Amino acid sequence: MLEFVLISIDLKDPKILEQNAPNEKRTLDTQLHDSNDPNVKVPTKTGLLKIPKTFYTPFKDSQLYSPYDLSFEKNLAYRYSLNNVKEDTWKRLCISPLKQYKSFNVLSEFITEMGRILPRDETGCSAKHQRQLAKAIRRCRGIGLLSTTQRHPTYLESKRKYYMNKKGAIEEA
Hints:
Blueprint: H1 14-19, E1 32-34, E2 41-43, H2 72-81, H3 89-93, H4 104-107, H5 120-123, H6 127-143, H7 153-167
Antiparallel strand pairs: 1-2
């Protein structure tokens, strides 16, 4: 059986008013306080350290994110995705893609089987060279040296062999 106990509290009691004073300024003590256990010391104020960018995923203002985005695995994936930058072929060779608009055999390496220009993450080009590469491919198509709808079968076969060797499915004889 439950019993209810009614407690009356006098709100004008000076002890209660003293404990709940709204204008009372409370300061944090920066010294270590001793607890009941002599082996435990609890700091009241700790210094905040700046977290390196490799340990969190940067979010933009008003961007939605899920709890998985805050997990450690997601942050590891973000951290390692930054390092997977390919070297720019055009920069290494000190050649501008715009000057290669007449060499369709070189430009055909940067288009898909259906004739679409490969994205930057697959070509490994910098933003500047990717724009120049797209412009050179469009010029080559305009001249009529490169097909707009598909890749030439001879270049298609060489690329297919390369990717099959890379995956380990077929070895070149």
